[in-house]
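Task: fold both queries, return tokens.
Query 1:
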Amino acid sequence: MALGRSFFGTRLLADRIDRLGTARPDLVLMAPYIVYLLLLGICGLMPPQWEWAAIALRGVGSLAVVWVFRRHLPPMGRSYFPLAVVAGFGAAWLWYAGQYAFEAGGLGGRLPLYPGNKSIADPRDSLGAGGLFWLTVVLRVGVAVTAVPVVEELFWRAFLLRALIDWNNFERLPLGKFNWLSFVGTAALSTLQHPDNWGVSILCWLFYNALFCWKPSLSFLMLVHALTNLALYFHVVRVGDWAFW
């Protein structure tokens, strides 16, 4: 009897999720990103020795939301692997070189009027240089190349790039639909996510948007985004350039 009630409850929950996904296509694309941001805030509340757990939680938690709504996701499309490799490493170079160019021009500080101050800290100061540091590094890079590209591309490219054209009927628009307001507007809004790298955030988002308009494939942009993050974190850890951490 208990097993039957459990199965019935699970089925009822699945039906409710299915109806919600059908009724709210915007929520399908926004929810994973919102959950990721909420869980990201936990990191600031955790002591350094438990940062790794908070990182793992936001990765698993946000991807779990994607999985819950998996039947309602838009088509993923082709990965265009060779092109994604070139674009991903190109975007990493754009982010890295662009930041130093903005620094040289006096525009490398925190986004104007954004609260708080830009700070650069070596994580080894709080984590040490041993196993705890490397566990944190591995999990942070792992989340950056798995969860982050998925939840951000669903939100920025699949949802917001179309929603800024027609918010109430965005799902009727094809992926990669071009409009100057959404093309530039999403790039400008991305600075709220990257206040310490706001200048290169605009450049990178314009680049990603252009790629998506050219090849309207979510798999392609997710792979590009993942390779960008992988290249940046590899550089950060290899040379200790913690400004990009």
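Query 1 returned. Query 2:
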Amino acid sequence: MTVSLSTHVLDTARGEPAAGVRIELARGHDIVAAGTTDGDGRIRELAADLEPGRYALVFWPPSPFFTRVELEVELVEGHYHVPLLVSPYGCASYRGS
């Protein structure tokens, strides 16, 4: 089984992608991958060839209130795309395609 992960961050207050956002992928206490969003707010391949299991996806978004957002995800098989929508007033995520 092979597992891979991509992500992007949208600044919904400004209505545009959030460039330069640090994102980490951790398993337990170990960071297994990290990167920074590009000009389109994306990291096209944050991690590839991962072992299936539970991971923490940690975003450091450009928000004066949400300074760190952590999502715990179960990655089983295939490719996962997990975006973050963030503003000073709220944040949301979903499993993309």
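Both queries returned. Flag for query 2: The CA atoms of residues 14 and 25 lie 26 Å apart.
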